[in-house]
Every structure is written in structure tokens, then in C-alpha cells.
Amino acid sequence: MTDSSERPLEVEETNRGTRTDEGWLSEYARDHVVHGLVIVAFLVYPVVYDLLGRSPLASEAAAFLPGLTFMIAVLYLGLFAMSFDFVSGYTGYLSFGHAAFYGTGAYAVVLATNGKIPGVPADTPFVLTMLLGAVLAGVLALAMGAVSFRLTGVYFAMITLGFAQVLYELVRNWGYVSPNPSEGATVDGGALEVGVPYVDSLGLAVGRLTGDSFENVLGTGFDVSATMTSYYALALVVVVCYFSMQRIIHSPFGKAMIAVRENEERAEAVGYDVFRIKMGAFAASAFFAGIAGALFAGYSRSVSPESTYFFLVTADALIVTIVGGIGTLAGPLYGTVFHEWLGDVLSTEDDGIATYLRETVPEGLLTTDVGGVTFADVINSVVDGRAPLYLGIVFVLFVLFVPNGLLGTVRDRLGGTVAERTGDVLERYRR
Amino acid sequence: MTSAEPLLATSGLTREFGGITAVDGVDFTLADGELCSVIGPNGAGKTTFFNLLTGVLEPTRGTVEFSPSDRDGAVDVTDASPHETALLGLHRSYQITNVFPTVSVLENVRIAVQAHRGNDTWRFWRNVHAFDDHFVEAERILERIGLAESADRPAETLSHGEKRSLEIGIALAGDPDLLLLDEPTAGVSSEDVAQVTALIEDVAADHAIMLIEHNMDVVMGISDRVVVLDRGELIADGDPETVRESEAVQRAYLGGYEDDGAADAGAGVTAG
Q1: Using one digit for the tens of pLDDT, what is the confidence trace for A280-289?
Q2: Are A247 and A86 in contact, with CB atoms under 8 Å apart?
Q3: Which of A185, A341, A364, A389 is deepest in the core (most CB within 10 A)?
Q4: With contact defined as beta carbons under 8 Å apart, do A336 and A77 qualify?
Q5: In the sheet where B8-17 sits, what is the strand order?
Q6: Residue B88: DSSP 8-state
Q7: pLDDT digit string (tens) for A331-347?
Q8: Topology of B8-271 in CATH?
Q9: What does R_g of chain B's alpha carbons equal in angstroms?
Q10: Which fold would CATH assign to domain A32-346+386-430?
Q11: Which of B87, B111, B171 lies closest to A255 in CB terms?
């Protein structure tokens, strides 16, 4: 009995005791070791990939690592998936119409830049049109939520999906967007810049063709392509959004969201206005989905109903969220890395595994006939462009055997969030 | 009007489900600091009565008035929603364990403390650890309900008896003026009943409590007052001794037992 009465003090100490002892800055750094490592990994990846491309391992690197354009897709699709998980994983309400918010952000940027939004001049900086798109997405979420949050479970998922499909059809047939709305719309003007609005020197133009490029950076002989500039500019926005969402998750509001997920009846009984909590979470989530859509539009400079409002856009976010770990904010990003990596290495274009095998496997083996099937046939049918097939298989396996996803499973093993536990592990080694 | 007005007062409180009247014209008052047990056969409308008080259900007829300690006079909570009654100081525990399963025991209580601190919930730019008082209060409650050493465990890993204590802890976290406990000893092994009972008595020292309970030893042992519901009607109201001796109550319980075995008509005759 005496033994057990001493323990709570220990518990308290490990929980919060360190917070007052250290300076907040070093404590912050300690809590964010893993975030720092991930950010560094994303920062150096393009450089490493570029260097590998010039090394003797060039063809292997091209075949087995995702190219830079795929990593850019990781950024905006990853942010979209994180925003999907923000509401779906933390409040438990599956937002199957999330593509509507992504599309709203994307179309807002294109329309604003083309001078088609009344009151918004065509030369409004991209950062501001991006915020406009995000706010519009948030407002749309409030309107959708006001109706949808009368329902729960699968009915909530279905009604949000219905709303998104209605918007998809509207946008597909809305002649104001472009002369051929079902094909989408493109940005007419010049390059779009991520940076401080109205300060030209603090902006980076994005886009595969229109982005800024720098030759012989700092005399190192290293060139930064327009694609690489876009990658870093988008990454900056995604990092800011990630930390904003993480901030909310770790705030009292985020804890209330989790309470709604865990037990909505009880959350209401202890005094939460659960409707307002859900609306707030939905709007915030839509805001970040809108940013993701805006980044996509700013980089690709063209949007179509299929690539934005279509329900399969949400489905991709759902798949990577399950693979990465639902209810873990960063998990969907890793899921997206996996998705895009698979899409790149199994692509039919000339830097995939299929091409690599055709070039490196000896001709004799390629044409060896076993029962009427050659190795080349096997490559064509099970490797070349088969990413969706394997993604589907991986998805099924994850749902069956790894229901918590990549990050969720790691967390279970460590007994806490990776950021928290890594700090403790490092602390242990330091002593 | 010598003494202060009652903490809780219902008048003509009625709830009908289709043709069935679950709660039928209940006039009931509760004084501050009272421990009042609500008993009655299964299906008597006890839990429905609680649901009407907390706003989970809306009454078909009648009113509910509640006088929170931090306000002057009574507030009409007849049409209030559950979170509104909770914020006024009316908290409850559930017959079937109803906690936040995957988060820690501490967080289960802390989240309820936070709800009571009003606008803190909307400070989405602050880390939850910036609100030290939430943790201090939650730890104090865990100490009181005897779960301090399980603070970091996920709630779903607690034993059934511990979950029953946590049920009460979550309800306590909102600093209630009136605590509604719905069968706190349901499913608790006979050895642990004493522990739960002790906790209720401890809590009763500084809270008004309404207790739904089937264990008559518990009811007769700790109640200041007992009311009996039968078929939605309040048929007896008094101190435990009087109620135990009451003929109407014994009839109701016998009628209840006959309901299980014999035909409904026979039971109707007995009770009527």
C-alpha cells in the first residue's frame, strides 16, 4: 500500500516534471528531434537523388527511387491526406467528400489568377489566393457540416460524398470556369510565387516550367532546377501547415476532438457542445485541404474536375491514411510517400523498374520461353504500370494485419508518439 | 420560503414513447446535500427519469428546474441539452460503463475538467500542457477515486470495478452540484461493492447525489431518502425505513416479480 502511494509522484514527474526544469527552447528541440530528422530527410532528398543520378548507380536510382515530380506530388497530396486524417482520424467522422475542399482550393487559385473572382485582381499574389481558397473551403465545410453532422457513422460519410459529387458535376458543367469545363481550366498569367506577398525578393516561383531556377548555386557547380525550387517552396508551406495542425491536435480543442471520437455521448454529458467541436474540426480540416488543392493548382497550373473534385481523390487520401496510420497526423504523409513511390517505380515511363529490367536482364533470359510465356511478358503484365494493383493488395493487407498503419504500429511499439519517446530514448543514452 | 429553494424540482414530468408512458407525472424535489436513492422494478422508468433531468430526452410534459450553486435562483432546464445541464452542474454516471476507452485514465478525467473550464477548449493555439490546473484537478480526483496509480494506463485496460470508479471520477470532474449515479455497482463483484459504496459515501459528503441502485443493502445503508418509481409513477418517498415498510412498495416489487413469471393481467390486478 505504501509502495503504491509513492508511485503517482513518479508518474507525474515523467509526465510533466521536466517541463519546468529545462529552458523551453531546448525542451522544444528535444520534443521535435524526429520532426527535425524528417524535415532534413525531405530537404536533402532532391540533392541526394540528383547526385545519385550522376553516379555509377544512376540507372538503379532512377528505377528504384521516386523522382522529384513524384516527391512534389507527395507534398500536396500528403498535405491533403493529413487534412483528411485531421477530421476523420481525430473526430471519427469519415469525410468522404473531402475532395470538394481540395477542389475548392485548387479552383479558387486558378479562377482568382485568371481574374474570374469578382473583387480579386488577377495579379493578387499566390499566397493570398491560396489563403482565399482555403477560407472558401472552410466556409464550404461549415455549410456541408451544418447538414451532415445531423448524421453519424456511415450516413455521415455518404452524405458528404454526395455533396462532393454534386459539386463535381456542377464544376464539370460550369461554363464560367473555362470554355471546356469538363476538361478543367489552366492558369493564364505568369508564374505563381510562394513567399511574402508583394515582396519580390522573398518569393519563389513554382511550376515545372515557370518556376525559378538557379545555376551554379554558391559556386558549388550545383544547379537547382525549376522543379527543385517548386519542391522546396511547396515543402515550406506543407511544413507550416503540418505544425499548425499538430498544434491544434495537441491543444485543448484537439483533446476535445479525440473525446468526440472516443465517446461522443459521454463528451456531451461532461459538457462539450459536440456539434460546435465537430464543425470547428471540419472547417479547420477543410482549410488545410484547400491549401493542398491550391498548392496543386499553383504547381501544375492546370486543374480538372477529375484531379480535384472527383471522389477517387478522396479515396486515395483514405488509402494512404489507412496505410500510414489513421489518427496519426504524420502517418498519411508516409502513406503518400509509399503510394507515390509505388506509382513511380512501377510506372510505364522510362525510369521505372520495368524499363530497368528490360535493359539490364540479359536478352537471352528475357526471351526464354516457358510454356509460351517469356520473362518479357511477365514484366509487361505484372510490373509495367501495375502500381494500382499492388497498392490495392497492400491496402487489403494493411486493413487485415496492420490496422493501425505504419506510424500507428510504431507508436504502439514505443508506447507513445514517436516524437515523445525518441526524446526519452536519447535522454537515456546521454546519461 | 424559510430554507433555500430546492436544488432540483420537477413538476408533472412526463415522457411518453408512443403509447407507453415511461415517466408519468413525477413531482419531485431534492434539497442540496441530500443523498436520495431512486429504486423500482426493472422498466420502472428510473434511467428515463435521469435522461429527462440531464436533457438527453425531452419531456412530453412537465418541467425541470435546477438551482446551480453559482447562480441566484432556479434555471428552467426542461429543454436544455446535455452539455448545457452539465455546464450548469448536473453530472451523471452511466449504468453501462461509458468512458473514453483508448486514452489514458488521467486524460479521461482531465478532458471532463477541461469541459468545465469553458472557453479553454477553444484555445486551439495553446498546448494542452499549458493548462496546469486541468492536470492538478484531474490528479486530485484520481487520488480521491483511488486510481492515481493507474493514471497513465489506457482506460480500456482497467478492471470492471476500476472502470466503475472512473465512471464516477469523470462525473466528479465537472465539479457537479448534483451527481446522478446510474447503478454504480452494476456488475461489480460482491467484494468490491463495499469499495464503490465507500466512494459514494465519500462523495456524498460534499455533493448532492441521486442514486439508482438495485442492491438494497447499499440503498438502505447510505441513503438519506428513498423514492420509488413504478411504471413511471412516483409511488413512495421517505426515509429508508418508511419506504422499506411501505405496502405499496412491496406490492410494486411483488408485482414486478410476477411480471416476469405470470401473465401481465395478473400483475395488473395485484398492483391495482
Answers
A1: 999 999 999 9
A2: no
A3: A185
A4: yes
A5: B20-30, B8-17, B61-66, B75-76
A6: H
A7: 999 999 999 998 888 87
A8: Rossmann fold (3.40.50)
A9: 19
A10: ABC transporter involved in vitamin B12 uptake, BtuC (1.10.3470)
A11: B111
